[in-house]
Amino acid sequence: MAAEKVYRASTTAPVNIAVVKYWGKRDPKLNLPTNSSLSVTLSQADLRTLTTASCSASYSAAEGDSLILNGEPSDVAGARTQACFRELRTRRAALEAADPSLPKLSTMPVHLVSENNFPTAAGLASSAAGFAALVRAIANLYELPASPSELSKIARQGSGSACRSLFGGYVAWRMGSEADGSDSLADQVAEAAHWPDMRALVLVVSAAKKGVSSTSGMQQTVATSGLFQERISKVVPQNMDLMEKAIKERDFPAFAEVTMRDSNSFHATCADTYPPIFYMNDVSKAAIRAVEAINAAAGRTVAAYTFDAGPNAVIYYLEKDTEAVVGTIHNVLGDIDGWKPAAIEGLKSTVSLDEGV
Ligand code: DP6
Fold first, then answer.
1. Cα(162)–Cα(33) distance, rounded to whole angstroms?
2. Hey, how many other C-beta atoms are within 10 angstroms of the C-beta on 135?
3. Could you tell which of 21, 22, 284 is best to mutate to test the pocket of ligand 1, judged by most ligand atoms within 8 Å of the CB?
4. Which reactions fall under this protein's catalytic activity (predicted)?
5. Which end of the chain has the lower number of beta carbons within 10 A, N or C?
């Protein structure tokens, strides 16, 4: 008997770092957010997930789908991963029903092998790159004729921020209003080439796993924070408008102010959660002061900090200000007693922006 064929597809997906943050779900099952968000896609040369998807009739049906993440077997039974598999299989099954000559890949177990080139779950949006790569790899395997926006709706169900990693450059996740999530998807606000001198410095303050996961943290915030209502009804809609304008006009001071204000607003709602959630530590706060000092010394805004659900800082700046920003971060954080090792050891190379998958 001829050996059963193994079908295979590989892809990489980039990390994105939000400058207007997603924080809160209006529907936890479909992963529908309480607000729109906007992110910048970072270079895959520095931060990416590489995923290979394969399927074969020879794979054990009893063992089913599987995932090896960074060399270790990882769970695929979770509701979010299952939702992605289900959506992708349904689309493949529709193609197979329309064209009976196609191999019945939708009925075969899928094996995934995935690898990050950065610390997993350290506040570096690994779930974003991870689910974007998973969805894109299986969509390629199934030869689905789906646009990045269509795939973003599937990736969103794996992890909200993952929907933005289907695009490069500057990406918005529109919250949508439909109950079934059909209009909650990502689109590209501008290509990376629109603002090619934008840079991001990733300051790895700690590569340890974060204390409170995004999923549970944001649910506690939605349930207990009064400030959160102000954020989703007023602060974020305004920040989305200002940010899109700043990007279109390549206005760095405006981009920077909205980025820093939105990060501060998000972390304020975390502090207003009961009991409070603190993602930033003393090194994170020193990075904020360092950025303020850099901007004061330059006499204009040349750097912007932002923090996700962890202590690591991402600092946005323009290529021409590399010396002022990167050099000073080294000096300032290096001069603070006790913080030098973490800050300097963790200082990753600057990363440029990426066109996406
Ligand atoms: C602070 O996308 O990780 O990074 O949808 O529950 O998987 P889930 O959450 P996730 O949350 C990211 C939160 C954030 C802000 C952002 O990326 O917009």
1. 13
2. 32
3. 22
4. (R)-5-diphosphomevalonate + ATP = isopentenyl diphosphate + ADP + phosphate + CO2
5. N
CB 121 within 8 A of CB 210: yes
Note down pLDDT in tens along the chain; length 357 residues. Answer: 457 999 999 999 999 999 999 999 999 999 999 999 999 998 887 788 999 999 999 999 999 999 999 999 999 999 999 999 999 999 999 999 999 999 999 999 999 999 988 765 445 657 899 999 999 999 999 999 999 999 999 999 999 999 999 999 999 999 999 999 999 999 999 999 999 899 988 887 776 666 899 999 999 999 999 999 999 999 999 999 999 999 999 999 999 999 999 999 999 999 999 999 999 998 899 899 999 999 999 999 999 999 999 888 899 999 999 889 988 887 777 654 444 334 434 555 555 555 544
Cβ partners under 8 Å of residue 313, min gap 6: 201, 202, 203, 205, 284, 287, 288, 305, 306, 307
Q: Is 305 exposed, middle or buried (0-12, 13-18, 19+ CB in 10 A)?
A: buried
Angle CA(7)–CA(8)–CA(13) in degrees, nearest 5? 150
Nearest CA to ligand 1 atom 6: 215
Ligand 1 atom 3 nearest Cα: 214
The residue nearest atom 11 of ligand 1, judged by CA position, is 214
- Counting from 1 in the atom list of ligand 1, the atom nearest the Cα of 308 is 1
